[in-house]
């Protein structure tokens, strides 16, 4: 598709080459909107990160042409189980109950998704990826957004109709807009994310598993066809990387099924990190917009962060598309700001917060009293109730096309 220079947006700048930045850039370019994607790094981030994409994220990934390949290269997710430390199943969600529903959860490590998106973006004539370009300052203008960018050739001014910050938790765009304040809190714990080859199947485990314990809580999920698993467990805060690494063998032996010794598994990555629940003051200020982790953070248990970020850019694309096509005014971006922040407050934050709180309970008390486990057990009683429960997360998206001037839904 070629750009129509007689109307619409001349250019959008997207800052960040994570999943939100790449997917948004690809959506824009495919619709005939010129896009420049900037990143301060010299290549894609290949660190181990999220892996699972919920139903509303899959709709965005399908729209951009990535979902079929995610399913081809990734694994089919059968379900998730909440367990006691001895492995007893307290509740389960069977994704297999959705059959071949295109919205069902998909799974592919994020670095592989980003590689697919980047490969597609590089084929788009209206897209330019600029590595080693770091935003150092933003400037507000009524007619255009301006950036001062540090490049290999020195500082440059770049302009666009809109700039979208998809530059993660430490977003320069957000900090330029609001300073260091990022409302919310940091959990008083550390999560250790490991990728590991271990024979969980011989212990009767498959798919995704959440183990409940006040100290030895963890998540174990099958993430690749070659047998790689992600194990993320809780640790005390404040230790050094080396101290966490020294504690890992004893931790694995204590928490994993089969109580394995170091020779029985192979760890391929080890990453301690802090977790947060935070929401930016606004997701639109003039011609500057935020999406994904630059706008909001949540803990990783339940996959709400990645799914929420992709839904952000799906909704934002519909807004920018409407403006470009002359079917919406710039005011639609205020609705993007309102509804995406509302979805965080009403859905992403409470659901992700309750997931981590549940994992840190006494398992017997959780079995008896936790409302989330009760809901899962109730939903599991019939095929239809299971489907309804799992697809309820589709409400995380908001139909922005209803605010088009002609009020006609589009695909």
UniProtKB/TrEMBL annotation:
Residues 11-346 form the FAD-binding domain. Pfam families: FAD_binding_3 (PF01494). One of its GO terms (biological process) is 3-(3-hydroxy)phenylpropionate catabolic process. Gene3D superfamilies: 3.30.70.2450, FAD/NAD(P)-binding domain (3.50.50.60). One of its GO terms (molecular function) is FAD binding. Keywords: FAD, Flavoprotein, Oxidoreductase. InterPro entries: FAD-bd (IPR002938), FAD/NAD-bd_sf (IPR036188), PheA/TfdB_FAD_monoxygenase (IPR050631). PANTHER family: 3-(3-HYDROXY-PHENYL)PROPIONATE/3-HYDROXYCINNAMIC ACID HYDROXYLASE, FAD-BINDING MONOOXYGENASE. This is FAD-binding domain-containing protein. It comes from Clonostachys byssicola. The lineage of its organism: Eukaryota, Fungi, Dikarya, Ascomycota, Pezizomycotina.
């Amino acid at each position: 598709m070629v750009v129509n220079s007689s109307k619409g947006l001349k250019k959008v700048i997207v800052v960040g080459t994570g999943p939100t930045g790449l997917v948004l850039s690809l959506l824009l370019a495919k619709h005939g909107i010129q896009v420049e994607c900037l990143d301060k790094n010299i290549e894609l981030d290949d660190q181990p990160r999220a892996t699972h994409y919920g139903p509303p994220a899959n709709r965005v990934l399908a729209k951009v042409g990535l979902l079929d390949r995610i399913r081809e290269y990734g694994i089919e997710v059968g379900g998730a189980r909440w367990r006691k430390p001895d492995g007893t199943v307290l509740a389960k969600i069977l994704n297999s109950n959705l059959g071949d529903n295109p919205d069902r959860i998909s799974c592919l490590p994020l670095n592989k998704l980003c590689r697919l998106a980047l490969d597609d973006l590089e084929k788009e004539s209206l897209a330019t990826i600029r590595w080693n370009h770091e935003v150092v300052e933003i400037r507000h203008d009524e007619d255009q957004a301006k950036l001062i960018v540090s490049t290999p050739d020195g500082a440059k001014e770049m302009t666009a109709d809109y700039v979208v910050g998809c530059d993660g938790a430490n977003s320069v765009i957000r900090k330029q807009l609001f300073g260091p304040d990022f409302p919310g809190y940091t959990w008083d714990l550390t999560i250790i994310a490991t990728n590991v080859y271990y024979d969980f199947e011989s212990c009767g485990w498959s798919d995704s598993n959440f183990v409940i314990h006040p100290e030895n809580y963890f998540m174990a999920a099958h993430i690749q066809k070659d047998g790689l698993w992600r194990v993320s467990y809780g640790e005390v805060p404040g230790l050094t990387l080396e101290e966490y690494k020294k504690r890992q063998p004893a931790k694995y032996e204590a928490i994993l099924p089969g109580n394995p010794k170091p020779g029985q598994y192979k760890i391929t990555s080890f990453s301690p990190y802090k977790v947060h629940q935070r929401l930016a003051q606004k997701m639109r200020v003039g011609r500057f917009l935020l999406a994904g982790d630059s706008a909001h953070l949540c803990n990783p248990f339940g996959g709400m962060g990645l799914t929420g970020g992709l839904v952000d850019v799906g909704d934002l694309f519909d807004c920018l598309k409407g403006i470009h096509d002359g079917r919406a005014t710039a005011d639609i971006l205020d609705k993007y700001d309102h509804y995406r922040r509302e979805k965080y407050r009403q859905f992403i934050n409470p659901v992700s917060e309750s997931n981590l709180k549940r994992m840190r309970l006494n398992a017997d008390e959780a079995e008896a009293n936790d409302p989330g486990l009760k809901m899962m057990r109730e939903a599991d009683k019939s095929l239809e109730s299971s489907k309804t429960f799992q697809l309820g997360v589709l409400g995380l998206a908001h139909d922005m096309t209803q605010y088009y001037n002609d009020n006609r839904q589009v695909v």
